[in-house]
Amino acid sequence: MSRPNSRDRALRERAAAVIPGGMYGHQSVGLLPDDYPQFFARAEGAHLWDVDGNRYLDFMCAYGPNLFGYANPEIDAAYVRQLGLGDTLTGPTELMVRLAEEMVALVTHADWAIFCKNGTDATSMALSTARQHTRRKTIIRAKGAYHGAATWCVNRPAGTVPSDQAHQIFCDYNDVASLEAAAALAGDDLAAIFAAPFKHDAFIDQADPDLAYARKAREICDRTGALLIVDEVRAGLRLSRDLSWSRIGVQPDLSTWGKCLANGHPISMMLGADKAKKAASQIYVTGSFWFQAAPMAAALETLRLVRDTDYLERLQTLGDRLADGLRERASAAGFGFRVSGPVQMPLFLFEDDPDLRKGFCWSSEMLNRGVYVHPWHNMFMCAAMTEGDIDAALNAAEAAFAVLKQQGPSLEPVAKMSFLTASHR
What we know:
Distance between the termini: 27 Å
Largest sheet: 7 strands, mixed
Organism: Phenylobacterium glaciei
Protein name: Aminotransferase class III-fold pyridoxal phosphate-dependent enzyme
CATH superfamily of the largest domain: Type I PLP-dependent aspartate aminotransferase-like (Major domain)
Pfam families: Aminotran_3
Helix content: 25-40%
Number of domains: 2
Radius of gyration: 22 Å
Strand order of the largest sheet: 4-10-9-8-7-5-6
Cofactor: pyridoxal 5'-phosphate
Family: Belongs to the class-III pyridoxal-phosphate-dependent aminotransferase family.
Shape: globular
Number of helices: 12
CATH architecture of the largest domain: 3-Layer(aba) Sandwich
Strand content: 5-15%
C-alpha cells in the first residue's frame, strides 16, 4: 500500500526532478514493496524513523554498516573529537598508522593495510594488486557473487562494454569441479580467485563455504602463483573477530573490508600478506577523502568494542532466537519458510514463491507492524538489538503470517521483480 499524501511521497516527487531515476543504487526502493519508505529522518540503536515519523526495528542495518547500533555514543564521540582536531587534511594523521597496526594484529593473514572509502574501491584495488603481482590478466569469480559496482564487476550491463569484464571466468560457488574447470581454462594466465565469505547472492538461499571448495581455491593459487582474495566487505566483523574463512582454516593473500568497519562512518580497506606488499605499493590508488582522520578514529573505537565486548556472541544468540522463532511461527501458519545463511546475516524466503508475491506481502505486513525486513536480500543483526526486540519481531511475524494465510490465492503477482528474478535464479 503506497502512501500518496506522505512526506516521503513528496520527497520522491522532488527527487525525480533533480536525481536521475528519482533514486539510484542499492538503497533505491524501486524493487521493494510500494509501501516501503525511501527517505529517513533519524536512527538510534536498532531503530530508525522515516520522514513521516514511523519507527522501525531495522534488520537491514543500513545494508550492513550498523554493527554496534545507530548513533553509538562511544564511536560517534571518537569521530566528533577528531573532527575538532582535523579530518580531511593535506596528509594523514597518526591514526592511519594505528589503524593499520590494529587491523594487522586482529586479522591473521594480514601484514599490511591500505584504506579507502567503499567496498568497490577495495575490491578494485585487490584486482589491480593481483594483476600487478602476477603480471597476468585472468580472474575467477563465482556466478552471481557481488563484488561492487565498478564496470569490471557490476551485475547490470547498462553503461558498460564487453571489454570491461574481459579476462574473467565464472564458476559455481562451492562447486570444486567447476572451480577446477575454470582454473584449467585460465591456464597460465590466472591472476586471482575472488571468493565471497559465504554464498550471499540475492533471491536464492545462502550457503556456508564448503571446506573442500575453499581448500581447492587455496591449492590452485599456491600451485599457479595466483592470489586468493576473500571479499569481506559485507560480512567482515559480523561472523568472526578475524577473517571469516579463518573459521575453516583457509587464509587468503588479500582481503577486502568495509561496511561496519567504523559502524557507519565512511571507510574501507584492503588487507594483504607480505607476498603482495610490493605489488600493492606499485599500483596507483588514491582519493581526496581516503585519508580522512575522523572515520579512522571511529574505526579504532569500533575495533576496541570488537575486542572488548561480547557483541559477536550476542549476535549469534539473538540470530538463533530470531531464526528458530520465525521457523516455528511459519510452520504453525502452514508456510514453508527458509532462513538461510549465518544467523547474523539471515535471508528469508518462502517456499513455492517464484515471483516473491508471498515475500512481498509478508514483508509489507512486517513493515506495517514496525519491523523493517527485506524480501530478497540478506539482512543483518546489530549489537544494539535486545531479546525484547527479537520477541517483538516474532510477534509481528506471527501476525504477518496470519494475514498472508488469509489472503492466500488472492495475492497479486509482483511484476516489478520479473526481470531481476529471471536474471538471478
